[in-house]
Every structure is written in structure tokens, then in C-alpha cells.
Write a structure and sequence with these properties.
2 domains; GIY-YIG endonuclease; 4-stranded antiparallel β-sheet; about 180 residues; about 15% strand; alpha+beta; two-stranded antiparallel ribbon
């Protein structure tokens, strides 16, 4: 099969995102390809492409732990954005509807977790009344609280992999894997 003749999504085997040890399998680390993420009921949630499918799967799992149970992957030997986009688009068309992660919830799948959106009214008031140094301190506190919630959700999901967020991004209230 050539890269210009992609397999139908329905013909690919669904692979659990987490292995028996609660880790994202390393089989797709540093692999270029297109991948489709499914929830526990095998409903398509997101279709993406990446230069490192393994890293992308880890990011999605951290951002959307309850929506990431299964994955179907097509790796390609020679990276080509045109080929990757064509496969992605073909799979979305085959699905019959745009998955939520490619539509309404695209930012939740593709962008760092924005802790600022989860500030309590008290945190919002303190943030508004603070100077720049105070705001950074508040954002870091909010990011740490949201990080604890994310880690608890991952633990409840059975994730055992080490998760480390970029400490500099926390100063802006963002949680992004390091």
C-alpha cells in the first residue's frame, strides 16, 4: 500500500491507548503518521497527524483522559503534510461527521490546558487586584490546583506514566507536557 492510497479507517485495528502497565505504548514514539482517537465506546473523538504520534497521544490523554481509550494509526515513511492531511480528511469523511475534537472542542485537544478558565471567583478577584508579580503567583497557584485535578483524573483512569508539566508555562496559567 502506498502513502497516497490510505487504508479505510474501518479496516484498521483499534489499539488500547494504555497498555497493561498504565503507560502509553512506546510503539508509536517518533513515528510520523495519522491517528484516530476513540472513547471507551469506540466513538471517534479526534483525528490528527503528527511527527511523533506517541507524544501526541500522551498530550491528548492528559488533556482528555475520558475520551482517549482506543487509537487507530497509519504511519508513513516519508513525512508529507499533504499526504497526512489527505488521510486525516479521508478518515473524517469516512466517519460521516466531524469528530468533536476536530470541531467544537478542537482547542481542548490541541492546546495546553488553560487553568485561567478554571479560576474560582475568589482567584479572579485576587488576580484583578494584583500587580504583575502577584498575578504570576496566582496563576501558578491556579495551575498547581488544576494540575492536581488533572493528575487525579489520570490516576482514576488508570494512567501510571510520569506526567510533568512545563514549569514556565504555569506562570501563564497553562499546563503543557514537558
Amino acid at each position: 500500500m502506498t502513502d497516497s492510497n490510505p487504508p479505510a479507517l474501518a479496516t484498521l485495528a483499534a489499539i488500547p491507548i494504555l497498555d497493561q502497565d498504565g503507560e502509553v505504548s512506546a510503539q508509536f514514539d517518533q513515528q510520523v503518521g495519522v491517528y484516530a482517537v476513540f472513547d471507551q465506546a469506540h466513538v471517534l473523538q479526534y483525528v490528527g497527524y503528527s511527527r511523533d504520534v506517541g507524544l501526541s497521544l500522551r498530550q491528548h490523554l492528559v488533556r482528555q483522559p475520558q475520551a482517549c481509550y482506543w487509537v487507530k494509526v497509519k504511519t508513513i515513511e516519508r513525512p508529507s503534510r499533504t499526504v497526512l492531511e489527505a488521510i486525516r480528511d479521508a478518515w473524517i469523511t469516512e466517519n460521516g461527521a466531524v469528530p468533536i475534537g476536530n470541531g467544537a472542542a478542537a482547542d481542548q485537544w490541541n492546546q495546553p490546558i488553560d487553568a485561567k478558565t478554571q479560576m474560582t471567583p475568589e482567584e479572579q478577584s485576587a488576580y484583578a487586584a494584583s500587580d504583575e508579580a502577584g498575578r504570576i503567583k496566582i496563576l501558578k497557584q491556579v495551575a498547581r490546583r488544576v494540575e492536581a485535578e488533572v493528575l487525579a483524573a489520570l490516576e482514576a483512569r488508570g494512567v501510571k506514566m510520569a506526567v510533568r508539566f512545563d514549569p514556565k508555562a504555569k506562570e501563564a496559567g497553562l499546563l503543557n507536557l514537558k
